[in-house]
Protein backbone atom coordinates (compact mmCIF):
# COMPACT_ATOMS: atom_id res chain seq x y z
CA UNK A 1 0.00 0.00 0.00
CA UNK A 2 1.28 3.50 -0.82
CA UNK A 3 1.44 6.52 1.45
CA UNK A 4 2.30 10.16 0.83
CA UNK A 5 5.06 11.79 2.85
CA UNK A 6 4.78 15.57 3.07
CA UNK A 7 7.17 18.12 4.58
CA UNK A 8 4.77 21.01 5.08
CA UNK A 9 5.10 24.76 5.26
CA UNK A 10 6.01 25.64 1.67
CA UNK A 11 3.82 28.27 -0.07
CA UNK A 12 2.84 26.74 -3.43
CA UNK A 13 3.54 28.83 -6.52
CA UNK A 14 3.02 28.11 -10.21
CA UNK A 15 0.62 26.66 -12.71
CA UNK A 16 -1.60 23.58 -12.38
CA UNK A 17 -3.58 22.07 -15.25
CA UNK A 18 -7.02 20.88 -14.17
CA UNK A 19 -7.81 17.33 -15.36
CA UNK A 20 -11.02 16.07 -16.88
CA UNK A 21 -13.84 15.43 -14.43
CA UNK A 22 -14.08 11.99 -12.83
CA UNK A 23 -17.74 12.44 -11.97
CA UNK A 24 -18.61 13.49 -15.52
CA UNK A 25 -16.40 10.92 -17.28
CA UNK A 26 -17.78 7.93 -15.32
CA UNK A 27 -21.47 8.32 -16.28
CA UNK A 28 -20.50 9.28 -19.84
CA UNK A 29 -18.44 6.09 -20.20
CA UNK A 30 -21.29 3.97 -18.84
CA UNK A 31 -23.84 5.77 -21.03
CA UNK A 32 -21.74 4.71 -24.02
CA UNK A 33 -23.30 1.24 -23.62
CA UNK A 34 -26.37 2.85 -25.23
CA UNK A 35 -24.53 3.97 -28.36
CA UNK A 36 -24.24 2.19 -31.71
CA UNK A 37 -20.91 3.12 -33.28
CA UNK A 38 -17.71 4.57 -31.88
CA UNK A 39 -17.62 6.91 -28.92
CA UNK A 40 -14.51 9.09 -28.86
CA UNK A 41 -13.91 10.94 -25.60
CA UNK A 42 -11.17 13.43 -24.88
CA UNK A 43 -10.00 15.02 -21.61
CA UNK A 44 -10.57 11.73 -19.77
CA UNK A 45 -8.54 11.71 -16.52
CA UNK A 46 -6.10 8.88 -15.86
CA UNK A 47 -7.56 7.59 -12.60
CA UNK A 48 -8.19 4.30 -10.90
CA UNK A 49 -11.99 4.76 -11.19
CA UNK A 50 -11.63 5.26 -14.95
CA UNK A 51 -9.47 2.11 -15.25
CA UNK A 52 -12.06 0.19 -13.20
CA UNK A 53 -14.89 1.46 -15.41
CA UNK A 54 -13.07 0.53 -18.61
CA UNK A 55 -12.41 -2.94 -17.18
CA UNK A 56 -16.09 -3.24 -16.29
CA UNK A 57 -17.11 -2.13 -19.79
CA UNK A 58 -14.77 -4.73 -21.31
CA UNK A 59 -16.28 -7.45 -19.11
CA UNK A 60 -19.69 -6.30 -20.31
CA UNK A 61 -18.57 -6.86 -23.89
CA UNK A 62 -17.37 -3.42 -24.99
CA UNK A 63 -14.08 -2.74 -26.76
CA UNK A 64 -12.23 0.10 -25.09
CA UNK A 65 -8.91 1.82 -25.73
CA UNK A 66 -7.47 4.48 -23.44
CA UNK A 67 -4.41 6.51 -24.38
CA UNK A 68 -3.23 10.04 -23.58
CA UNK A 69 -6.55 11.15 -22.14
CA UNK A 70 -8.57 9.76 -25.08
CA UNK A 71 -11.00 6.86 -24.95
CA UNK A 72 -12.36 5.03 -27.99
CA UNK A 73 -15.24 2.75 -27.14
CA UNK A 74 -17.49 0.34 -29.03
CA UNK A 75 -20.27 -1.57 -27.31
CA UNK A 76 -20.62 -4.58 -29.57
CA UNK A 77 -21.22 -7.93 -27.82
CA UNK A 78 -22.96 -6.84 -24.67
CA UNK A 79 -23.31 -9.21 -21.72
CA UNK A 80 -25.78 -8.53 -18.90
CA UNK A 81 -23.66 -9.25 -15.79
CA UNK A 82 -21.55 -6.76 -13.81
CA UNK A 83 -19.46 -8.66 -11.25
CA UNK A 84 -19.21 -7.73 -7.57
CA UNK A 85 -15.40 -7.43 -7.50
CA UNK A 86 -15.45 -4.41 -9.81
CA UNK A 87 -18.74 -2.87 -8.80
CA UNK A 88 -17.96 -2.89 -5.06
CA UNK A 89 -15.09 -0.42 -5.46
CA UNK A 90 -17.02 2.24 -7.28
CA UNK A 91 -20.39 3.81 -6.73
CA UNK A 92 -20.93 4.93 -10.32
CA UNK A 93 -20.77 1.36 -11.63
CA UNK A 94 -24.46 0.85 -10.81
CA UNK A 95 -25.14 3.19 -13.74
CA UNK A 96 -24.59 0.28 -16.14
CA UNK A 97 -27.87 -1.27 -14.94
CA UNK A 98 -30.26 1.03 -16.87
CA UNK A 99 -28.25 0.98 -20.13
CA UNK A 100 -27.96 -2.85 -20.01
CA UNK A 101 -31.67 -3.22 -19.35
CA UNK A 102 -32.39 -0.87 -22.25
CA UNK A 103 -30.24 -2.80 -24.68
CA UNK A 104 -30.66 -6.40 -23.49
CA UNK A 105 -33.93 -6.43 -21.55
CA UNK A 106 -32.10 -7.96 -18.55
CA UNK A 107 -29.17 -7.19 -16.28
CA UNK A 108 -27.51 -8.46 -13.13
CA UNK A 109 -25.46 -5.85 -11.29
CA UNK A 110 -23.96 -6.15 -7.81
CA UNK A 111 -25.08 -3.50 -5.31
CA UNK A 112 -22.45 -0.78 -5.58
CA UNK A 113 -19.69 0.32 -3.19
CA UNK A 114 -17.84 3.64 -3.41
CA UNK A 115 -16.74 6.04 -0.69
CA UNK A 116 -17.94 4.93 2.76
CA UNK A 117 -19.65 8.23 3.56
CA UNK A 118 -23.16 6.98 4.25
CA UNK A 119 -25.60 4.16 3.53
CA UNK A 120 -26.00 5.31 -0.10
CA UNK A 121 -28.98 3.21 -1.19
CA UNK A 122 -30.10 3.12 -4.84
CA UNK A 123 -33.85 2.96 -4.13
CA UNK A 124 -34.64 6.10 -6.16
CA UNK A 125 -32.75 4.71 -9.17
CA UNK A 126 -34.77 1.48 -9.01
CA UNK A 127 -38.12 3.18 -8.32
CA UNK A 128 -37.61 5.40 -11.37
CA UNK A 129 -36.65 2.47 -13.60
CA UNK A 130 -39.70 0.55 -12.30
CA UNK A 131 -41.91 3.44 -13.40
CA UNK A 132 -40.43 2.93 -16.86
CA UNK A 133 -41.41 -0.75 -16.84
CA UNK A 134 -38.43 -2.56 -15.27
CA UNK A 135 -38.89 -5.25 -12.63
CA UNK A 136 -36.25 -5.93 -9.96
CA UNK A 137 -35.36 -8.53 -7.42
CA UNK A 138 -32.37 -8.79 -5.11
CA UNK A 139 -30.43 -12.05 -5.02
CA UNK A 140 -27.18 -12.61 -3.09
CA UNK A 141 -26.39 -8.89 -3.08
CA UNK A 142 -27.05 -8.54 -6.81
CA UNK A 143 -29.81 -6.47 -8.38
CA UNK A 144 -31.49 -8.55 -11.07
CA UNK A 145 -33.55 -6.51 -13.48
CA UNK A 146 -35.75 -7.43 -16.42
CA UNK A 147 -37.97 -5.48 -18.77
CA UNK A 148 -39.83 -5.82 -22.01
CA UNK A 149 -38.66 -2.50 -23.41
CA UNK A 150 -38.61 0.66 -21.27
CA UNK A 151 -41.38 3.24 -21.61
CA UNK A 152 -41.30 6.97 -20.94
CA UNK A 153 -42.76 8.00 -17.58
CA UNK A 154 -43.32 10.92 -15.26
CA UNK A 155 -40.84 10.48 -12.40
CA UNK A 156 -40.85 12.78 -9.36
CA UNK A 157 -37.68 12.28 -7.30
CA UNK A 158 -37.88 12.48 -3.48
CA UNK A 159 -34.41 14.08 -3.42
CA UNK A 160 -32.31 15.49 -6.29
CA UNK A 161 -30.00 12.46 -6.43
CA UNK A 162 -27.07 12.96 -8.80
CA UNK A 163 -26.56 9.30 -9.75
CA UNK A 164 -30.32 8.69 -9.88
CA UNK A 165 -30.88 11.62 -12.25
CA UNK A 166 -28.03 10.44 -14.48
CA UNK A 167 -29.30 6.87 -14.46
CA UNK A 168 -32.85 7.81 -15.42
CA UNK A 169 -31.70 10.22 -18.14
CA UNK A 170 -29.65 7.38 -19.66
CA UNK A 171 -32.48 4.85 -19.49
CA UNK A 172 -34.99 7.33 -20.95
CA UNK A 173 -32.95 8.18 -24.06
CA UNK A 174 -33.98 4.97 -25.83
CA UNK A 175 -37.32 4.43 -24.06
CA UNK A 176 -40.59 4.63 -25.94
CA UNK A 177 -42.16 8.08 -25.55
CA UNK A 178 -41.35 10.97 -23.25
CA UNK A 179 -39.90 10.91 -19.74
CA UNK A 180 -40.08 13.83 -17.33
CA UNK A 181 -37.87 13.95 -14.26
CA UNK A 182 -39.06 16.30 -11.54
CA UNK A 183 -36.84 17.51 -8.70
CA UNK A 184 -33.89 16.38 -10.82
CA UNK A 185 -30.34 17.12 -9.67
CA UNK A 186 -28.72 20.07 -11.47
CA UNK A 187 -25.01 19.31 -11.05
CA UNK A 188 -22.74 20.39 -13.96
CA UNK A 189 -21.71 16.75 -14.48
CA UNK A 190 -25.36 15.91 -15.28
CA UNK A 191 -25.36 18.68 -17.84
CA UNK A 192 -22.18 17.24 -19.34
CA UNK A 193 -23.76 13.77 -19.57
CA UNK A 194 -26.87 15.19 -21.27
CA UNK A 195 -24.74 17.20 -23.72
CA UNK A 196 -22.79 14.05 -24.58
CA UNK A 197 -25.98 12.04 -25.14
CA UNK A 198 -27.44 14.84 -27.26
CA UNK A 199 -24.25 14.80 -29.34
CA UNK A 200 -25.05 11.10 -29.94
CA UNK A 201 -28.58 11.94 -31.13
CA UNK A 202 -30.57 11.90 -27.88
CA UNK A 203 -33.34 14.46 -27.28
CA UNK A 204 -32.80 15.78 -23.77
CA UNK A 205 -33.86 19.25 -22.64
CA UNK A 206 -34.01 21.08 -19.33
CA UNK A 207 -30.75 19.54 -18.04
CA UNK A 208 -29.25 21.91 -15.50
CA UNK A 209 -32.76 22.72 -14.23
CA UNK A 210 -34.89 20.65 -11.88
CA UNK A 211 -37.24 19.46 -14.65
CA UNK A 212 -35.54 17.35 -17.31
CA UNK A 213 -37.44 16.11 -20.38
CA UNK A 214 -36.23 13.21 -22.48
CA UNK A 215 -37.92 12.27 -25.70
CA UNK A 216 -36.98 8.67 -26.49
CA UNK A 217 -35.24 8.01 -29.84
CA UNK A 218 -34.73 4.76 -31.79
CA UNK A 219 -30.95 4.66 -31.52
CA UNK A 220 -27.88 6.69 -30.66
CA UNK A 221 -24.93 7.17 -32.97
CA UNK A 222 -21.22 7.54 -32.22
CA UNK A 223 -19.75 10.98 -31.47
CA UNK A 224 -16.66 12.79 -30.26
CA UNK A 225 -16.98 14.62 -26.96
CA UNK A 226 -14.65 16.52 -24.59
CA UNK A 227 -15.30 15.80 -20.92
CA UNK A 228 -15.64 18.92 -18.74
CA UNK A 229 -12.81 19.87 -16.37
CA UNK A 230 -13.02 18.57 -12.80
CA UNK A 231 -14.56 21.23 -10.55
CA UNK A 232 -13.70 19.30 -7.38
CA UNK A 233 -10.06 18.81 -8.35
CA UNK A 234 -9.89 22.51 -9.28
CA UNK A 235 -11.50 23.49 -5.96
CA UNK A 236 -8.96 21.34 -4.11
CA UNK A 237 -6.07 23.25 -5.74
CA UNK A 238 -7.73 26.59 -4.96
CA UNK A 239 -7.71 25.50 -1.30
CA UNK A 240 -4.07 24.39 -1.69
CA UNK A 241 -3.17 27.96 -2.69
CA UNK A 242 -5.06 29.33 0.33
CA UNK A 243 -3.81 26.86 2.93
CA UNK A 244 -0.14 27.28 2.03
CA UNK A 245 -0.35 31.08 1.64
CA UNK A 246 0.61 30.47 -1.98
CA UNK A 247 -0.19 31.72 -5.45
CA UNK A 248 -1.52 29.20 -7.98
CA UNK A 249 -2.77 29.66 -11.51
CA UNK A 250 -5.24 27.02 -12.69
CA UNK A 251 -5.45 26.16 -16.35
CA UNK A 252 -8.90 25.02 -17.64
CA UNK A 253 -10.64 25.87 -14.36
CA UNK A 254 -14.47 25.50 -14.50
CA UNK A 255 -15.04 28.85 -12.80
CA UNK A 256 -18.79 28.99 -13.36
CA UNK A 257 -19.40 25.51 -11.94
CA UNK A 258 -17.27 26.48 -8.91
CA UNK A 259 -19.04 29.74 -8.12
CA UNK A 260 -20.31 28.73 -4.66
CA UNK A 261 -16.89 27.40 -3.66
CA UNK A 262 -15.09 30.47 -4.96
CA UNK A 263 -17.55 32.75 -3.12
CA UNK A 264 -16.91 30.90 0.17
CA UNK A 265 -13.14 31.02 -0.28
CA UNK A 266 -13.40 34.72 -1.11
CA UNK A 267 -15.40 35.24 2.11
CA UNK A 268 -12.51 33.56 3.94
CA UNK A 269 -10.03 35.99 2.38
CA UNK A 270 -8.60 34.07 -0.60
CA UNK A 271 -8.15 36.39 -3.60
CA UNK A 272 -8.94 35.45 -7.21
CA UNK A 273 -8.14 36.84 -10.66
CA UNK A 274 -8.66 35.75 -14.24
CA UNK A 275 -11.01 33.42 -16.08
CA UNK A 276 -11.35 29.73 -16.84
CA UNK A 277 -8.33 29.59 -19.17
CA UNK A 278 -6.12 30.95 -16.40
CA UNK A 279 -7.60 31.38 -12.93
CA UNK A 280 -5.30 32.67 -10.18
CA UNK A 281 -5.83 32.06 -6.45
CA UNK A 282 -3.57 33.82 -3.97
CA UNK A 283 -3.42 35.06 -0.42
CA UNK A 284 -2.26 38.47 0.80
CA UNK A 285 -3.46 38.48 4.39
CA UNK A 286 -4.89 36.28 7.14
CA UNK A 287 -7.83 33.97 6.38
CA UNK A 288 -10.98 33.76 8.48
CA UNK A 289 -13.32 30.87 9.30
CA UNK A 290 -16.85 30.93 7.89
CA UNK A 291 -20.04 28.92 8.36
CA UNK A 292 -21.17 26.65 5.53
CA UNK A 293 -23.67 23.89 4.76
CA UNK A 294 -23.38 21.40 1.92
CA UNK A 295 -26.38 21.24 -0.41
CA UNK A 296 -27.28 19.92 -3.85
CA UNK A 297 -25.98 22.10 -6.70
CA UNK A 298 -25.92 25.10 -6.92
CA UNK A 299 -25.30 24.85 -3.15
CA UNK A 300 -21.88 24.19 -1.63
CA UNK A 301 -20.70 20.73 -2.83
CA UNK A 302 -20.28 17.95 -0.28
CA UNK A 303 -17.23 16.83 -2.28
CA UNK A 304 -15.43 20.06 -1.17
CA UNK A 305 -16.51 19.92 2.50
CA UNK A 306 -13.43 18.09 3.84
CA UNK A 307 -10.97 20.29 1.93
CA UNK A 308 -12.47 23.59 3.09
CA UNK A 309 -12.57 22.23 6.64
CA UNK A 310 -8.79 21.73 6.44
CA UNK A 311 -8.47 25.39 5.42
CA UNK A 312 -10.66 26.53 8.32
CA UNK A 313 -8.46 24.56 10.73
CA UNK A 314 -5.64 27.03 10.04
CA UNK A 315 -7.74 30.21 9.70
CA UNK A 316 -8.69 32.81 12.30
CA UNK A 317 -11.84 32.56 14.44
CA UNK A 318 -14.40 29.77 14.36
CA UNK A 319 -16.96 28.41 11.90
CA UNK A 320 -19.59 25.68 11.68
CA UNK A 321 -19.55 23.18 8.82
CA UNK A 322 -22.85 21.34 8.31
CA UNK A 323 -23.04 18.26 6.09
CA UNK A 324 -26.42 18.19 4.39
CA UNK A 325 -25.98 15.33 1.89
CA UNK A 326 -24.28 12.33 3.51
CA UNK A 327 -24.81 11.12 7.07
CA UNK A 328 -21.25 9.90 7.62
CA UNK A 329 -18.92 12.35 5.94
CA UNK A 330 -16.80 13.57 8.85
CA UNK A 331 -14.24 10.75 8.95
CA UNK A 332 -11.47 13.28 8.34
CA UNK A 333 -12.28 15.13 11.59
CA UNK A 334 -10.44 12.83 13.97
CA UNK A 335 -7.44 12.71 11.63
CA UNK A 336 -7.34 16.53 11.40
CA UNK A 337 -7.38 16.56 15.21
CA UNK A 338 -4.25 14.35 15.16
CA UNK A 339 -2.59 17.23 13.31
CA UNK A 340 -3.59 19.61 16.12
CA UNK A 341 -6.91 20.92 14.75
CA UNK A 342 -9.66 21.99 17.16
CA UNK A 343 -12.93 20.52 15.94
CA UNK A 344 -16.02 19.54 17.91
CA UNK A 345 -18.58 17.28 16.27
CA UNK A 346 -22.28 17.48 17.01
CA UNK A 347 -24.50 15.37 14.75
CA UNK A 348 -24.23 16.66 11.20
CA UNK A 349 -22.25 19.76 12.22
CA UNK A 350 -18.61 20.36 13.05
CA UNK A 351 -17.46 23.45 14.94
CA UNK A 352 -13.95 24.37 13.79
CA UNK A 353 -11.74 26.74 15.78
CA UNK A 354 -8.70 27.82 13.82
CA UNK A 355 -5.23 27.24 15.28
CA UNK A 356 -2.00 29.12 14.50
CA UNK A 357 -0.31 26.11 12.97
CA UNK A 358 -1.09 22.43 12.40
CA UNK A 359 1.70 20.01 13.33
CA UNK A 360 2.75 17.05 11.18
CA UNK A 361 1.70 13.51 12.21
CA UNK A 362 0.76 10.17 10.67
CA UNK A 363 -2.85 10.14 9.52
CA UNK A 364 -5.12 7.66 7.78
CA UNK A 365 -7.22 8.47 4.73
CA UNK A 366 -10.73 7.02 4.95
CA UNK A 367 -12.24 8.12 1.63
CA UNK A 368 -11.45 10.15 -1.45
CA UNK A 369 -12.08 13.73 -0.32
CA UNK A 370 -10.93 12.97 3.24
CA UNK A 371 -7.61 11.97 1.64
CA UNK A 372 -7.39 15.27 -0.24
CA UNK A 373 -8.20 17.14 2.98
CA UNK A 374 -5.37 15.40 4.83
CA UNK A 375 -2.89 16.12 2.03
CA UNK A 376 -3.89 19.81 2.17
CA UNK A 377 -3.53 19.85 5.95
CA UNK A 378 -0.12 18.17 5.63
CA UNK A 379 0.99 20.86 3.14
CA UNK A 380 0.19 23.52 5.75
CA UNK A 381 1.48 21.68 8.83
CA UNK A 382 4.93 22.14 10.27
CA UNK A 383 7.20 19.10 10.00
CA UNK A 384 6.40 15.75 8.44
CA UNK A 385 2.96 14.31 7.73
CA UNK A 386 2.45 10.77 6.47
CA UNK A 387 -0.93 10.23 4.80
CA UNK A 388 -1.58 6.50 4.76
CA UNK A 389 -4.03 4.49 2.60
CA UNK A 390 -3.90 6.87 -0.33
CA UNK A 391 -5.44 4.33 -2.68
CA UNK A 392 -8.60 6.37 -2.11
CA UNK A 393 -6.83 9.42 -3.54
CA UNK A 394 -5.79 7.52 -6.65
CA UNK A 395 -9.46 6.87 -7.41
CA UNK A 396 -10.12 10.54 -8.06
CA UNK A 397 -7.01 12.77 -8.35
CA UNK A 398 -4.79 12.52 -11.40
CA UNK A 399 -1.09 12.48 -10.43
CA UNK A 400 -1.75 14.66 -7.41
CA UNK A 401 1.71 14.45 -5.89
CA UNK A 402 3.34 15.28 -9.26
CA UNK A 403 1.10 18.32 -9.74
CA UNK A 404 1.86 19.50 -6.20
CA UNK A 405 5.58 18.86 -6.55
CA UNK A 406 5.65 20.96 -9.71
CA UNK A 407 4.39 23.97 -7.75
CA UNK A 408 6.93 23.54 -4.96
CA UNK A 409 5.45 21.05 -2.50
CA UNK A 410 7.83 18.69 -0.73
CA UNK A 411 5.82 15.52 -1.23
CA UNK A 412 6.72 11.97 -2.19
CA UNK A 413 5.00 8.62 -2.57
CA UNK A 414 6.41 5.72 -0.57
CA UNK A 415 5.39 2.15 0.02
CA UNK A 416 4.18 1.47 3.55
C1 LIG B 1 -19.69 9.27 -9.06
C2 LIG B 1 -20.36 10.51 -8.59
O1 LIG B 1 -20.77 11.36 -9.37
N1 LIG B 1 -20.48 10.65 -7.26
C3 LIG B 1 -21.06 11.87 -6.73
C4 LIG B 1 -22.57 11.67 -6.60
O2 LIG B 1 -22.79 10.54 -5.77
P1 LIG B 1 -24.23 9.89 -5.72
O3 LIG B 1 -24.82 9.90 -7.07
O4 LIG B 1 -24.07 8.60 -5.02
O5 LIG B 1 -25.00 10.91 -4.77
P2 LIG B 1 -26.56 11.17 -4.66
O6 LIG B 1 -26.83 12.56 -5.08
O7 LIG B 1 -27.30 10.09 -5.33
O8 LIG B 1 -26.80 11.03 -3.10
C5 LIG B 1 -27.29 12.10 -2.32
C6 LIG B 1 -28.05 11.56 -1.11
O9 LIG B 1 -29.18 10.83 -1.56
C7 LIG B 1 -29.20 9.53 -0.99
N2 LIG B 1 -29.80 8.60 -1.98
C8 LIG B 1 -29.35 8.58 -3.25
C9 LIG B 1 -29.88 7.73 -4.19
C10 LIG B 1 -30.94 6.88 -3.79
O10 LIG B 1 -31.48 6.09 -4.60
N3 LIG B 1 -31.37 6.92 -2.51
C11 LIG B 1 -30.82 7.76 -1.58
O11 LIG B 1 -31.24 7.78 -0.42
C12 LIG B 1 -27.73 9.23 -0.70
O12 LIG B 1 -27.58 8.23 0.29
C13 LIG B 1 -27.22 10.59 -0.26
O13 LIG B 1 -27.51 10.80 1.10
O14 LIG B 1 -23.14 12.85 -6.03
C14 LIG B 1 -22.68 13.11 -4.69
C15 LIG B 1 -23.44 14.31 -4.17
O15 LIG B 1 -23.10 15.44 -4.88
C16 LIG B 1 -21.17 13.31 -4.70
O16 LIG B 1 -20.70 13.40 -3.37
C17 LIG B 1 -20.45 12.15 -5.37
O17 LIG B 1 -19.09 12.47 -5.57
C1 LIG C 1 -17.90 10.43 -3.17
C2 LIG C 1 -17.21 10.45 -4.30
O1 LIG C 1 -17.14 9.45 -5.22
P1 LIG C 1 -18.11 8.14 -5.32
O2 LIG C 1 -19.50 8.67 -5.47
O3 LIG C 1 -17.61 7.46 -6.54
O4 LIG C 1 -17.91 7.35 -4.06
C3 LIG C 1 -16.43 11.66 -4.67
O5 LIG C 1 -16.07 11.81 -5.85
O6 LIG C 1 -16.14 12.48 -3.77
From TrEMBL:
UniProt domain Enolpyruvate transferase: residue ranges: 7-404
GO biological process: cell division; cell wall organization; peptidoglycan biosynthetic process; regulation of cell shape; UDP-N-acetylgalactosamine biosynthetic process
InterPro entries linked to this entry: Enolpyruvate_Tfrase_dom (IPR001986), Enolpyruvate_Tfrase_sf (IPR036968), MurA_subfamily (IPR050068), RNA3'P_cycl/enolpyr_Trfase_a/b (IPR013792), UDP_GlcNAc_COvinyl_MurA (IPR005750)
Organism: Desulfomicrobium orale DSM 12838
Primary location class: cytoplasm
Modified residues (2-(S-cysteinyl)pyruvic acid O-phosphothioketal): 115
Residues bound to phosphoenolpyruvate: 22-23
A cellular component term, taken from the record's GO annotations: cytoplasm
Binding site for UDP-N-acetyl-alpha-D-glucosamine: 91, 303, 325
Reactions catalysed, as given in the entry: phosphoenolpyruvate + UDP-N-acetyl-alpha-D-glucosamine = UDP-N-acetyl-3-O-(1-carboxyvinyl)-alpha-D-glucosamine + phosphate
Entry's localization field: Cytoplasm
EC class (word): transferase
UniProt name for this protein: UDP-N-acetylglucosamine 1-carboxyvinyltransferase
Function: Cell wall formation. Adds enolpyruvyl to UDP-N-acetylglucosamine.
Single GO MF annotation: UDP-N-acetylglucosamine 1-carboxyvinyltransferase activity
Family, as annotated: Belongs to the EPSP synthase family. MurA subfamily.
Pathway membership: Cell wall biogenesis; peptidoglycan biosynthesis
Active site: 115 (proton donor)
Catalytic activity, EC: 2.5.1.7
Keywords: Cell cycle, Cell division, Cell shape, Cell wall biogenesis/degradation, Cytoplasm, Peptidoglycan synthesis, Pyruvate, Transferase
